[in-house]
Amino acid sequence: xxxxxxxxxxxxxxxxxxxxxxxxxxxxxxxxxxxxxxxxxxxxxxxxxxxxxxxxxxxxxxxxxxxxxxxxxxxxxxxxxxxxxxxxxxxxxxxxxxxxxxxxxxxxxxxxxxxxxxxxxxxxxxxxxxxxxxxxxxxxxxxxxxxxxxxxxxxxxxxxxxxxxxxxxxxxxxxxxxxxxxxxxxxxxxxxxxxxxxxxxxxxxxxxxxxxxxxxxxxxxxxxxxxxxxxxxxxxxxxxxxxxxxxxxxxxxxxxxxxxxxxxxxxxxxxxxxxxxxxxxxxxxxxxxxxxxxxxxxxxxxxxxxxxxxxxxxxxxxxxxxxxxxxxxxxxxxxxxxxxxxxxxxxxxxxxxxxxxxxxxxxxxxxxxxxxxxxxxxxxxxxxxxxxxxxxxxxxxxxxxxxxxxxxxxxxxxxxxxxxxxxxxxxxxxxxxxxxxxxxxxxxxxxxxxxxxxxxxxxxxxxxxxxxxxxxxxxxxxxxxxxxxxxxxxxxxxxxxxxxxxxxxxxxxxxxxxxxxxxxxxxxx
Length: 525
What we know:
The chain is mainly alpha-helical. Helix content is about 60%, strand content about 5%. Helix 2 (about 15-35) packs parallel to helix 7 (about 110-130), helix 6 (about 85-105) runs antiparallel to helix 8 (about 130-135) and helix 7 (about 110-130) runs antiparallel to helix 19. The protein is globular, with a radius of gyration of 25 Å. The N and C termini lie far apart (about 65 Å).
């Protein structure tokens, strides 16, 4: 092989890697075409955020809302089309992880065959990991966040591999897109800063390139920062709510104990081998900053009682490092490790597929979970036990709730409809009314739940209120007369969605516009 072709191989990646990435995309699209489940609670929120998009005045990073608008404008509201961009992003994560594995392996004197084995092993680890399968299936910021972390770590790895300091610009772009997508990008940002200070990479601080990266990241992520300033830092009450309702009760060590279940035990071992290799191996010394960044981000998350999946975006680069480390061993060990690893990961993925992907009916999924005895997979964020994984339960019942509201709406006289405001008590119900309501002739929904509060009370004073969810006693603080007129729900949903009241209230004590400031979630968290 001549030097130019070797250089191309070292700096590139095998063309067949695109086939594995395309497989990931088609897998998710296929599941969304056949699934008996519907739109997820969180997806309803993000689609609604697109409807109300204000780039510079959102209480959360607006990237997902922008993608929602692009997706709906291009492809409509079919389930597969809503989730098409996450599916494509999952394929890009597979590709980026494979590129990292190829370049790690080639840079440490592995043969092309060994580098190819490392690439396949890494791609399969991402393809079969439950946390990546689920993220690529849903229209949420999670999958995009995974991609930005992966690209930021790949960019700093390339800076070290090539010696080209301009790769800092790539780090800045990835971190900026991350800031525009999810505030959790800060964790890997802190990790990179610590890694830079603890390694010879700190010499880069004497050049303009890391500072250019910082400027690029802030510039791209500026809408997220400006939105926080404009709305008086809503992230503070959001974090208080999250800590109180979900994180505070978590044992810090559960972050570590749950990691093998996020991917699978084989992939977890591969990733931990990669972390050790990056931190201590002589052949990987140039990439020590990558290992430190991953480790520090996990330590910060553990101290904050973070959920296990918050740290999952480090896995693609760790899989790549672990696969490259395996290729440092004897050729026979490389081959056995690769073949055994791939077979075991695929076997475990097939075994766990009904709990990672919504491919069976709710009843069949619940029966499978019971047979497998995996109660931890069906536990909610607040510790409740369900027959289904929470994500699956959160995909059920929303159209039926809106149909029930529409039925009650049709019973109103024309004069009553003109004076009625439609209210929802949580963001899932509000998002469902936002998405499905127009096809039933329903007016825009008003809600004080989280992000919806910032969109205001509308123009109607609320002479009559038709509420989806909530308590009669709660609404009687605002209205003189309230009564439950219908109950709707699904037995397969999360507990709060199994019996949802539709409540009618008459004779407001004050116009809704006067009451609205008192409902500010910042004051009620």
